[in-house]
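Notes from the 1:1 (GR / supervisor)

We went over the backlog. Supervisor wanted to see one worked example end to end before approving the batch request, so GR pasted a single chain during the call. The sequence is below; no edits were made to it. Supervisor asked that the structure be written out right there so they could see what the output format looks like.
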Amino acid sequence: MQPEVFYDMISRRLIRTKILQILYAISRKEDTSLAAAEKELFLSLQKAYDLYHLMLLIPIELCKVNEWKIEVARQKLRPTYEDLHPNMRFVNNRLIELLRINRQLQKYISENKIGWAPYADMFRSLFNNVQQRSYFVEYMSKSDINFKDDVKVVSDILENEIPQWTELEIALEEMSIFWNDDLDFVLGMALKTIKGMKESDTADKPILSMYKTEEDIDFARKLLRKAILNRDEYHELIRQHSQNWEFDRIALMDLLIMQLALAEILEFQTIPIKVSFNEYIELAKIYSTENSNHFINGILDHIVKELKNQNKIIKIGKGLIET
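Structure output shown during the call:
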C-alpha cells in the first residue's frame, strides 16, 4: 500500500502572489519598511490559512441549519407526517461528521477564535438555495447511498455555490482585508482535503498543515527581501532590455512581476529557470493586461540569456540551467 501523502496549504504560488501584492502596496507608499512588509506577508499567509479552516466549516454550518429546520418543523402546532419523519440523510452525512469531530480543525478554530457564528442568516439562505439544486435533490432521494455520495454532495455544494455566493463575498470583506484574492485558491485546498477523506478516518485525521517545511518560510522571507532590497538593480536590468519601449511607460504591475521574477531567478539556485518563468507568466495572466505575459516573457528571456552568458546565473542540480 502506498503511504498517504499530505500537502501543505501555503503553496509557493500563493507566496509569490502575496509578495507581488505587497510590492504593489509598497509602490503606492514609499515609506514602508522591510520589517513592516515582512510582517504583513506572514500575516496575510496566516489569514489564508484561517480562511482554509472557515471553508471546511461551511458544510458543518449547513448541517446545523438542516437540523434547526427539522426541529422547527417538529415543533409546529400541527406537524405533518413529513415534519415528524424528516429525511435525515444530510444531517447524518458521514463526511460532515468527520469534519465535525476532527481534532485538528476544531483545535485551530478554537485557539484562533474564528467561525461563522455572526452569519447564521447567511447560511439559512444558502441552505434554502441548496435544497432546490438537482444534485442535492438526487442525493436526498436516492434509495441508498455510500460514503462517496456523502463526499460528492458536499463537494458539489462547495464547487457550485461558493463561487457565486454574493453574501459570502461581502462577509469575507467584512472579516479580513487579506481575503480579496484568496477564495479560489483556498477553496481548492478545502476541496482537496474533503475529497481525500475516507470513511475509515478518525478524529485524528490530519488536515493540511500551513507549511510543508521550514524551507517554504525561508523562501517567502528571502524572496520578499531580495525583491525589495535589489529593486534598483532589477529595474536597471529591465530598463536595459526593454528595447523599443520606454521604461517609464511599462505598466507598474508588469514591472513588479519582472522585479519579483528576477529576484527568484537570481537568488534561488535550486529553482529551475523554467519553473520561475512559468510561475510569473501565470501571475501576469491574472494580475496584468491581456498581452503582458508575452511582453514580460520577452524581456525576461533577454535578461536571462545575457546573465547566463556572463555566468551571473548559477543553478545547482541536474537539469536546472535550462530556460
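Supervisor's comment: Residues 34-74 form the longest helix (41 residues).
Batch request approved.
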